[in-house]
Input
Amino acid sequence: MAVEFTAGVVPPFYRELCNILSADGHAEIDRALVGKLIAKSGLPGPVVQDILHNASKSPNSAVTRTNLYKSLALTAFAQLGRTTIDDKIFETFSGDLPVPNFESANLDTIREWVGIWRRETNPRILGYKYDDVVAFDSIQVEMAAEKKGLILKHVEYHVTSSKYRVKVTRRYSDFLAFYEVLLSKFPYRMVPRLPPKKFLDTRPEFIEIRRKWLRRFVNLVARHPAFAPDPILKFFLTFNGPDTQDKLRETFKMAPDEFLNSEIAWDAKQWVSSDVQMQIAGAKNQVELLGKTVEAFKAMADRMVMRRTGLAADMLNSAKAAGLMCQDGATTSWGDPHRWSELRAALKAIAPDLVNISETAENLADSEADTVADKMALLLDVVTAFKDLCERHEKGVVKEHSTALYKVGVMKQKKMDATVKTQGVASMHYDNRIQRQESELSVMEHRNSYSLHCLCLEAQLVFVYMELLPRALENLSQNEVKGNKDICRAWQEMIPRVDALFPSARGLPQSSTTSPSGSLPSTPS
Output
């Protein structure tokens, strides 16, 4: 019986490896990449070539998903000692297909290797997925103990990097200096915004919003492929000396920007497609739509958190009110004293249930704030950073390029006028100026190409972070299902206690709230 090479039949390793090798889910896979992978099997060169030829006959053709599955199976058979490596094996084979071994590499190491290979062979491709950028670093930003200055109080933050395993203390002004030197060196990249600075605002809610914003900011920077290996980031996350902001500016403010240090900057034009402007326009429209969608979901998540927080506060206040009533030890003569005692005992008994509901609602609110609203906010930060980058490109590089082009045109016109008037000295003067302007124009053209190249890569990074949206919605649905079940269970547990503690309320006549004579009872002395 012939082997079927479909996704539901082949081993999971085959499917997962295919997802890693395929570029952005495309059905076809680069033949050179498949050849590099099979070469890692340790098989002799001729055998590797036979397997690759079976997968794709032409050196310039791609490998289909089915042929990749066949290549993996043939590799495994060859490792098991089979001498005949062709499709005839599958005509008589039955059972589970074997799994090949690639230098004892697991899927994570293969994924990392494939990403490196893609970036090295094609600078147009970002080559990262969401889990890849998250693995760069994870940074915590926590409040430090309150500090008091000579005039005003200021807030400090403990910043801890899992990569460098160092905890440093930073003020908002340190983050601001970090942002400035980062933007100076990387003007063609997405530098996320900082929270606005507000003087004299020490409200706890404002401080907490700023802390979360700073945490998102530094994590986005640390997980950016261009920023992650840069010494600016390492300095900010590890420097433990005084005057961090001054040291940052002194050390890095005069450093050349990314364009001057890039290996492909002067060849960026070849990596920019002819329809790049159309591609960027399309990406801007898609990012705009993404931003509006995320804004709507984040507003929904924020309101859900507020409602849960309000429920938690209401339940806790009710529990406190019930406790206050139980503290009063006086009896009553305004009605049935037994009912009064019954009510006080019931409220005392259900107060812990109200506290339980409050804690459940508060836990749900905290969970949705961290796993839903914060993810939405992070994605919005990325969208905003991309919009800011597009604006810098239009107002900076494009404008400077147009200005340089205009100056060259003006100088050439003036040279022509001087030549017509036979002003030889003036003509030579304009020649020198034209050469300088053309040199400046050449640099501007290269910068424009490099900026467009970076814009394409940054657009890919936005869509890498788009993975946050389905993950946040998945967390939201899970939190709501579990949280509502927990709250419903807490209410259900309270019902039998209420019934048991109010026996006279079920089918028993209620006593009058007045005395037998119809007059109000006297106040107990």
